[in-house]
Amino acid sequence: MAAPGSTARTPSPVPARPPATGRRFGGVDEAAVLRRVVSMCGHLSALASQNTELADVVALLADGAAAGVVVLDRRLDVLARAGVGDRDVVSALRDQAGVTGLRTVLAAAARNRRALTVPGTAGAGSATIVAPVSVGEDVSGYLVTTTPCPSAVSSPGAGELTEDMRLLVTEHAAMVCGVVLGRELVVTAAAGRARQELVEGLLLARDRDDPEIDRWAQHLGFEPGRGYCAVAIGSAGDRAPVVFGTVEAAAARLVPDAIVATRSDEVVALVPAPQAGGSPVDAARVLAAGCLAATAGRTGMRTPVAAGVGNPCRSAAEISRSYTEARHALLAGERLGGTGSVTAFADLGIHRLLLRVPDVADLRGFAEEVVGALIAEERNGGMEYLATLSAYFEHNNSPRRAAEKLHVHPNTVSYRIRRIEEITGLSLDVRRDRLMAEVAVEILDALGGRR
Q1: DSSP state of 313
Q2: Quick one: which of 180, 201, 199, 203 has its CA closest to 191?
Q3: How many other C-beta atoms are found inside a 10 Å radius of the C-beta of residue 131?
Q4: Helix (H, G, I), strand (E, B) or coil at 268
Q5: Bridge partners of 134?
Q6: pLDDT tens by residue, 247-262
Q7: Would you put residue 259 in left (φ > 0), alpha (ψ -120 to 50) or beta?
Q8: How wide is the angle at C-alpha 351 spanned by C-alphas 443 and 231, nearest 5°?
Q9: Which residue has the higher pLDDT, 448 or 284?
Q10: How far apart are CA 40 and CA 62, in angstroms?
Q11: How far, in Å, CA of 67 to CA of 84, rounded?
Q12: Is the pTM of this model over 0.90?
């Protein structure tokens, strides 16, 4: 009961408590949107722990964010896409970047390791989010998300995500893409190492009866009985890695079914005979010449490059022999022809034996003992005795045919031959003297010892 003289007050009614929902903005339940973002991030994280591909990550992000999504590598080539169609995303992004420049935008994203937003052009109705895709310490590419403008959102769902939420989801998806790319790089590297070990085993195999050799070769795509030739392409200098990359790419383009591997100082290719028929030696020569031409266009021949071709092999056990022959031919080509030469082992002749002499000084010493006086006479008088002697032997001791090659009169050749016999004390009608002189000339040709 109220006290006398007091005024009774009726308690104000307590307002009914609204249902437990999140703060609303623009007619959208913020808590529901946040739950959606958390769910998307959870699904993306789950993909990272599975044997997934970039296409799966891109598809999930495109569906959840109602956006077009593209993954670009560092050269801005498309690795995966979803919800974009066939339009040129890079061109569109370049247009949006405007005066800032696309490269500047990408560099900023890579430098800060954060996603950033590129506003849409006037009337375009969309903005773009660019997030760097990192693999370890390196930025391997970019995740690009084309998002609808807020004004374009008219229905609930993925379009309700704010710009900050889109940035968050895109960054998380970029991290997952980095995990996927990193895993692919690890698998590729492991496969490359395994392949390299198989190639090394075939090239250096000493036990040709080892049954494992056939299995190794089959893993690499070797077809027994088809006929292969080993090609060794060598290079020297600081730019050798660049040259080898060019050579390997050219070899794969010229003969797609060749077995190609890069070693520390050379590129080796096992070139098969053409399916339509033909010699594997001819196919190997074409590949070697094409690879050298590719390096000439790329490096301007500033780095020495030469190629050697081995004899054909029809079984895996013979690969080592063909490779050894290709190496001998490569060394002979570097001595005889130098840069840009393709030398086949079958064409070496006596050089096969000369290359087996371990000390080059012994070869040069023998040659100088036999024809050293001719070298001195050439220096003093300028007469081309060695060239005459080489042409004379090449044309089976015929002064007339040797003269045609040298563009002189046959009597000139006959006179020079008499002088050669006088200077050296050799008699070229005597088999032993003639053989010594021929070998000496071949040695000087191989060692570049003329004049």
Answers
A1: B
A2: 199
A3: 26
A4: strand
A5: 139
A6: 888 888 999 989 888 8
A7: beta
A8: 135
A9: 284
A10: 11
A11: 8
A12: no
